[in-house]
Amino acid sequence: SSPLPRFAKAWDAQAHLAPPAAASAAPVNRFHDMPIAIVGMSGVMPQSDDLDEFWQHLKNGDDLISVIPEDRWDWREYYGDPFKEVNKSNSKWGGFMKEVDKFDALFFGISRREAQMMDPQQRIFLETVWKAIEDSGHRVSDLSGTRTGLFVGVATNDYVDVMNRLNIGLDGYSASGNSHSVLANRVSFLLNLRGPSAPIDTACSSSLVALHRAIESIHTGSCDMAIVGGVQVMLSPAAYISFGMAGMLSGDGKCKTFDKRANGYVRGEGAGAILLKPLAQAEADGDHIYAVVRATAENHGGRVTTLTAPNSAAQAELLIEAYDKARMDPATVGYIECHGTGTGLGDPIEIQALSKAFGELYKRHEHAPAAAPHIGLSSAKTNIGHLETAAGIAGILRVLLAIRHRQIPANVHFEELNPYINLAGSPFYIADRTRDWEPARAGDGSVLPRRAGVSSFGFGGANAHIVLEEHPASAMPAPAVEAGPQLFVLSAKTDDRLRAYAAAMLERAERAAPDLIDFAYTLQVGRDEMPERLAVVAASHDELCRTLRAFLDGAAPDGAAAAGFSQGSSRPRKDAAPASADTVQALIEAQDLAALGAVWVNGAEVDWKCLRRPRTPRRLALPTYPFARERCWIPGVEGFRRSGDAAAAMPAPAAAAAAAAAPSVVA
Questions:
Q1: Average pLDDT of span 410-438
Q2: Phi, psi dihedral angles at 39 (to 5 degrees)
Q3: Dist. CA 238–CA 78, nearest whole Å
Q4: Cβ-based neighbour number of residue 362 at 10 Å
Q5: pLDDT in tens, 459-514
Q6: Tally of CB atoms within 10 A around 420
Q7: According to the 3-state scheme, what is the secondary structure of 422-433?
């Protein structure tokens, strides 16, 4: 009786009409013409301050879910049966970051008052973007004035809930501090990025859709590079109440994706960002490349039984489109990072769509059905919960880490396959443990790059999938040459941050022993210069580590290292001026690294690319700036409650109103 189905049928009736001649031409495959490289990444995940820590948890198969911390809200006030009690939730668990109240406001030139009124999602994402750019081995200032786009998945407004329930007065910073448009636009403003700048909200598919839109923007020429990410911070019980009443949440705090016991998802929070540029440009710039984006696809499930019900046919169409765009043989794919919410409805539908899509792809490539499973299925949600608008970027980061370490992380909590899931005759298996990721081989026996897909499906029907491929050249060791002495430089805004930076570099040098030529080069050209400075000349890892350790211990370096060690400030002084350009050029020509480090420490400008090196250097992923961890929260509030206010819990009417306005997530 609805007019919509009649309209759809009328529209379908026109399908037999011949399309215009122009429309019948094969579409341009821009991914084939211009593949996109991921050259930088950064993330903060539940119980993981950085991606190295996150990978260790993934490798170990850790469950990073905890009871809701006391400094968020008192879960006891809201825990109960949502179907029998008002404003109750059946979940008291979540995946939480460690320090969402901390921010280095002065680093970005933001006043304390303005920072206090900023949604922590803005603050955390801003720092994450800075780290992603530095991780690429480029200075953040290198992007200033460029047509770099910024696309971020974001939806929640929990900080507003906190301020409302504490009756915090509004001020001039309230609007900009809690606007999703400003969350994206503030990054573009502070970093002087001239490309598109936009928040994306398609529920759980937000950050994958953000990636899709970013790459479309590069392909159409709207921007030359792009930063893509997602962020979510949980500060209010409102969404817990709403989603509990919708029957979406796990009653035991465990996300059991694909398992017989699956009973709902667990909420989580986090932030992640990646830096994209055309592959040819990344290779020309000497970038390390985490992976190549071979294709992205986006669609909607259309009209199905209910608004929130997933559409298996639409998901299958999405996957087929993505792998056709990628021109990728499905038999060479090794890993799918699934949406995998751990719900009785969503998991079987997702597997049904995967099986249907890969069955069709196998036929198109004239393959018989897979003789043995070769595609591991796993989901980050089993480790960290469902990050909703940041779920897609969490999945991307998980795959990038898997490619780097050549392992497929475990789908934890898996014991027995959901009886509604049938993997027989399919190329899929559940990755029930972390396992080595063996690459596929071509017909001639040659090794192929590792290939993976990432899925995200929004609960309103917006779907996205991306196809990633390893860039084998980035994993190749640098040519073996005699490095000789190298000049390592570090700088920071303050002395204590300089020491924190030196400690991070020492830990990296001791743990991974990076190539000295690339290590020195990346520090020279890949970090913005700040006032407090340190320069070290070293010809070996051991010498570098000894000198950094002496600096951190407050002792003077001994022996030959003392001559190459300089520490100071570039801040203007009345009694001294920085060395002239002619002096610096003479030191470069003489390759006097110790003297060059000394004049740089005192404020001289050095064009580091003019230094002679034994070979062409490459940019490395090295520790990024150690931001100060200073509490930056609503004035007069300890934890997330007003100091001395025992009645800070959300009143029932306010909770109900907030729940009604809560963001949507996948069931």
A1: 97
A2: -110, -10
A3: 10
A4: 18
A5: 999 999 999 999 988 777 777 788 899 999 999 999 999 999 999 999 999 998 89
A6: 14
A7: CCCCCCEEECCC
| Nearest CA among 548, 521, 547, 532 for reference residue 498 | 532
Beta-carbon count within 10 A of 281 CB: 15
Per-residue model confidence as pLDDT tens digits over 561-593: 677 899 999 988 877 788 899 999 999 999 999
pLDDT of res. 519: 97
Looking only at the bridges linking them, the beta strands covering 532-538 and 565-569 are antiparallel
CA dist 97 and 384 (Å) reads 10
More confident residue, 642 or 540: 540
**Amino acid, single-letter form, for residue 222:** S
Q: What is the pLDDT of residues 231-260, one digit of tens each?
A: 999 999 999 999 999 999 999 999 999 999
Say if residue 174 is exposed, middle or buried (CB neighbours under 10 Å; 0-12, 13-18, 19+): middle
Dihedral sign, Cα of residue 396, residue 431, residue 205, residue 232: negative
Q: What does residue 264 show for φ and ψ, rounded to 5 degrees?
A: 125, 175
Contact 267/385 with Cβ under 8 angstroms?
A: yes
* pLDDT 10s digits, 353-395: 999 999 999 999 999 999 999 999 999 999 999 999 999 999 9
> Tokens representing 376?
């591991």
Q: For the CA atoms of 493, 497, 503, 508, what is the dihedral angle to 10 degrees?
A: -60
Instruction: List helix spans (H) across 195-264.
Output: 206-220, 238-245
Beta strand spans in 291-354 (E): 291-300, 335-337
Which residue, chain included where needed, has tokens 């008291």?
A: 92
| Same fold flag, 32-472 and 486-610 | no
Any idea where the domains of the chain sit in the sequence?
32-472, 486-610
**Model's pTM, two decimal places?**
0.91
What pairs with residue 98 in β-bridges? none
Place of tokens 């009604």: 660
Sort 313 into a burial class: Cβ within 10 Å, 0-12 / 13-18 / 19+: middle
pLDDT digits (tens, 9 = 90+) for 260-276: 999 999 999 999 999 99
Q: Which residue has the tokens 């215009």?
A: 20
Do the bridges between strand 291-300 and strand 36-44 make them parallel or antiparallel, or are there none, so unpaired? antiparallel
Higher pLDDT, 170 or 519: 519
Topology, domain 486-610: Alpha-Beta Plaits (3.30.70)
Distance of alpha carbon 211 from alpha carbon 116, whole angstroms = 30
Residue 75: strand, helix, or coil: helix
Q: What angle do CA 199, 201, 204 make, to 5 degrees?
A: 130
Contact predicate 110/127, CB 8 Å: no
pLDDT for the residue numbered 572: 84
What fold is seen in the domain 32-472? Peroxisomal Thiolase; Chain A, domain 1 (3.40.47)
Contact assessment for residue 628 and residue 108, using Cβ atoms and an 8 Å cutoff:
no
**Rounded-to-10 torsion of CA 589, 591, 595, 596:** 70
* pLDDT in the model for residue 308: 81
pLDDT tens-digit readout, 121-148 = 999 999 999 999 999 999 999 999 999 9
The HSE-up count of residue 627 (CA atoms within 13 Å, CB side) is 23
What's the distance, CA 454 to chain centroid? Answer: 13
User: Residue 44 corresponds to which tokens in the numbers above?
Assistant: 């903060």
**What φ, ψ does residue 267 adopt, rounded to 5°?**
-75, 150
For residues 421 and 355, is the Cβ–Cβ distance under 8 A? no
Could you count the other beta carbons within 10 Å of the beta carbon of residue 513? 14
Residues counted in the chain: 667
DSSP 85: S
Residue range 632-661, pLDDT digits in tens: 998 777 666 544 443 344 433 343 333 333
Residues in CB range of 554: below 8 A, 6 or more apart: none
Give the Cβ contact number of residue 139 at 10 Å: 15
